[in-house]
Protein 1
Amino acid sequence: MLATTDESHCKFVADCLRDSGLWRLPDVEVETGRLWRISPSLFSLDSSFVRMLERLGYAIWSFYAAVNKLYLSGEYPWVNEYLDMGKPDSLVEHAHMNYQKRLLPGVIRPDILLMEQGARITELDSVPGGIGLTAAMSITYGRCGQEVLGGADGMISGFGAMLSAVSGMDNPAAAIVVSEESADYRPEMEWLAAELRARGRSVWMVRPEDVVFTEEALFIDIESQRIKLDVIYRFYELFDLKNIPKSELIAYAAKKKRVVVTPPYKHHLEEKLLLALINHPMLEGFFLREMGEEGFSLLREIVSPTWVLDSRPVPPHAVISGFQFRGEAVQDWRVVENATQKERRLVIKPSGFSPIAWGSRGVIVGHDVSSDKWAEAVESALANFNSSPSVLQEFHDGKRVRVRYYNESLDDIVEMEGRVRLCPYYFVEKDGVNLRGVLATVVPLDKKFIHGMLDAVMLPCKVEGDA
């Protein structure tokens, strides 16, 4: 690495990403120029916050385990009713199959907003994008001599260790299967697979139609060689199964234990409304028993207040738990349709199992739309409750942070004030749930959504005080 100045560091990062084919973002088409702003240095997190992040991974994993047990036991039928709404019977039946009873996601990524005091989890993702991009950026900043949180090679080694853990094999033959709907992520998954192969692992990125089915096993053909698969990393959404070639055959092979599929075919672990369960008073005792006091308390403290937009009548003696409007308890969500702009610091999101349920698609920020648009969004969410539930969350401004980036027109490093989303990546490995990298996305203060964009600065993180 020959670059010695901040400007040359930024140019080096951009060149490496271009050479890797990763200078791109989902849903964004730019032939030339940049796709986001590049910082010469990593985003600093203080050591106490990093220690919390390291504990958080196991807390989230134990929450997934608790929800899985809650759902499969049927102990609280209303929970199953929420999670099964709009799902095909075949998927619900598959979720209950014994072969995958204890299987949980192998990669976990929460979306975390930094606040003036503490932080807030706004979403959990068990089929996260950005693994390859974060891995490539971590390696590149590491080559610039910077101490990346999780290690420069942490994302790649973590993914490989996860495949070993889920298969019970040192070097399983694995295919990262990326659907057409998720095609924008193919370059980063192809890069990730190539990097894993360069480290001696047997991993390939393929399309669903590339998988060869037999009664004995699943295979892929690589350079005229037929390779028997031990693991399929499922990078496609369950709502899209009917459009994915051979998805039924992959599910059948998993059921017959011919291959391990991760994340498992469990729709009940891929809904935003899971966040509404963590603070539900009826479930407090259950989660406390299953998760332990430390993990349960940590998650309750950091998860953003979330409610299911349930259109059903509330009994006269009951209210919607934990929600108040104009200082009073609420029995019907329709009261918020008349909220003023100041009162509309609320967000509506599709819970899941929908093409508009990932990224910022389908998200309505109350104070960013007209009163008519807001009322329409509330009414639409309630009308679609039985087929596609939505959730309501408080809107969080987030902490103001300052970050430096390279300005091409000035050929200089400038500073920007913005708000940040942190995406820590946890991998479930044989020795535990390990934090292997954190991607920070900083957007200008006038942006309501925090995601990769032209005006965003995207960068890995470090522990404050490290080089």
Protein 2
Amino acid sequence: MATKCSIPVIDLQDLDSPNQLSKLISACEEWGCFRLLNHHEVLPSTLMSEMKAVVRSLFDLPVEIKRQNTDVITGSGYMAPSAKNPLYEALGLYDMSSPQDVDSFCSQLDASPHQRETIMRYAGAVHDLFMGIVGKLAEGLGAKSENIGFENWPCQFRINKYHFTPESVGSPGVQIHTDSGFLTILQDDEGVGGLEVMNSSGEFIAVDPWPGTLLVNLGDMATVWSNGRFCNVKHRVQCKEAKIRVSIASFLLGPREAVEPLPELVDDKHPRVYVATTYEEYRKLRFSTKLQAGEALALLYTSSSDK
């Protein structure tokens, strides 16, 4: 049973103020997630609505067309309901920051000109939003974002559909996990809940729908990059009611080269916690060990780490 509580709320338009920036960093350290408001200059509410309509229409395609959405890396393409996740279905593309990848995704699904144009605009807006958020994270930790090269990091895109039935109420839609990448922007279902995040006490907190806002989660790569300061939030989806639930998730994965703790966060009092790793190496580590809830980070501890 999830506890009733609110996750932190961050106002994007106010992030130039020291107080709001401090609140952002605290949310990342204590929760590893937050609700984002006032992002509509970058990602307008009209585009969010248009994109959600496109997503629903893509899931209505015949399964033989959806199966044309093939993987670039494991899990980046079409995922049909399975024995492990029988209520879950997904479509995706590996790098939404690449016009070629977006075009390929649209072609695989025989997207109409309107669908293609909407997906292209949404991908560009979300990438701009990622860059704004991670720039503020770097600033809040005392690092210079222009030295990090966030704009070259791949951004995976996944649209999710949960086929909740009366028999499945109380069952998991997706098992407990952390995101393997750096940062996730989630446009959740406007009316059907089910997302739960774990707080620092190990309790699950229900994240109720809030139309017109976004959810932001930090993943395992953010924990490495922040030298353990940022929380990689554990979360799951539970079936609360017999309805279809649709969400749009965008993932800033991490650099193609090695990610390691920011040098500004490592000193004699704060020794380096993690060895350097690439996102792809870490993703394969999680897959091979079947450690999906952040436990694989322990395999990256340095010999001097006291974790």
Protein 3
Amino acid sequence: MTTKNFNVGNINRIKYIVIHFTANNGDTALGNTNYFKEYRGSSAHYFVDENGIYQSIEDKNIAWHCGANKYKHSYCRNTNSLGVELCSRKDSNGKYYFKDKTVENAVELIKMLMAKYNVPLANVIRHYDVTGKNCPEPFVRNIKAWQNFKDRLEADNMTEAEVKKIATKIANDMIYEYKDKVYNTYEEVPDWGKATVRKLLNKGILKGSEKGLDLSYTLLRLLVINDRAGLYD
């Protein structure tokens, strides 16, 4: 995840989920996640392509994805929403579209987020609905495609087990930087991971080795995401 391009927030702020498109042709969720590790002046919480889902900013923090000088929407803002970017493609006529698997992955992600944060279907909206920007273009140009997308979100209510399953899938899909970084003491663990490490130590789930915690950066990230999904409660 990036350490830039967001403001600090809290989980209770989440009331809306805003759908975007990357306006590129052939980009990837991982590529976008890496790109936004540097300061860009804009951001999103998640990037989705046909191969998986990558998280760029923690849900609790405020991404810069739908700010504007003037708004169409009376209430939705960066401060109370999550931003989800779908990686786009162009057809032979130069029109943007989403691959079917990209849409499928996005549906899974958004259903999980809706269930996790109690976001109603009416509050899953397009960037266009917030500011009037032509985004996500395939869902602005084709209102039937947008309605079909929303119908898929409504199709079935997710069980708690399904929410946890998708949260784990997202964690497993994600590839993190600093793979060789290893934390051997509790004091070395970054602040964002300390609560999870303390919980797992107290429960006896995390034992370490003769070297100490022997906890890799990648594993720490996975443990934190699973913890936030409630897997260790």
